[in-house]
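Summary for the lay section of the report: proteins are chains of building blocks that fold into shapes. Here we show the chain for Alpha/beta hydrolase and then a coded description of the shape we predicted for it.
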Amino acid sequence: MEKEGKRKRPNQRWGLLAALALGAGLTWARRDRHRQLYPPRGEVWGLPSGATHVIEGGTQDAPPLLLIHGSDGVALDWPLSPLWKKLAPHARLIAPDRPGHGYTPARPGEAVTVEKNVERCLELLDALGLEQVTVVGHSYGAAVALALALRRPERVRALVLISPLALPARGLTRPLAYVPQVPLLETLLTRVLLLPLGRVVAHIEGGNAFYPAPVHAAWQQMMLAFSRRREQVHALAWENRTLGRELGALRALYPSLRCPVTVLGGVHDRLAPYPQQAQALSGQVPGAELLTFSDGGHQLHWTHPEEVARATLAALPRSEG
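The coded shape description reads as follows.
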């Protein structure tokens, strides 16, 4: 019996290799699926720190809104959401893909940090000829928005922070974030496991993001398409690894913010828990307005577009006055 077991091992080994090769082939074959389903909707700007894909919409001569997406999101999250159409008649909408996300590449080995995102946003505002904007940030994008207002306060009229991830807390760094830093594990993840894992992660993350509401099919399809990109895995890894340290440094500066700040938080938020994030942040920013959604979760711009639009548009005249 022992000899028979040994004879089977080569076949098992070849079977495993064949399965891995098949997985790699499927992942490789579908690596550009996001381009087939969601071709670029905006223009690519050649900025000093790198090419940046920007989706624009709304009313050209209206007050500008810079919309910054979250950690594992893309710029397309904004125009796909029902919030976009509600804002469009009243504001000029500017939604960039952050470095490493969507159609904005990250340079090989580039550290995708909050500070790098701020630098890219400032370059974009210069390229667009905009001296000042109201900034809407969702989740990780709220951290970028806060850092932007702290670094260049004269460029920010007001902040609207949706489900902000703005304060250091346990659980911000996920173990998976370190995988792309290990060569063999990186190859296994991005070349073999990304396709099947992408489906599982999108399903789990979607459930957590929209809870207690059902997941929007349009959002889930978009996430499935973009989350399988090797570059996005690397960007997400960098963001997760450095976020806690960056938020710790930013937290000490929040009391110095002087622009109007509106914070929107859902009580049932599973990704940026309301008591530790939205509620706590509003207490650290002078004069911040906190809007609490008792039946909301993390994706408020999808689940509560009317209320989010009302709060966002209210920030425009308030900052003008």
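Put simply, here is one thing we learned. The longest strand covers residues 50-58.
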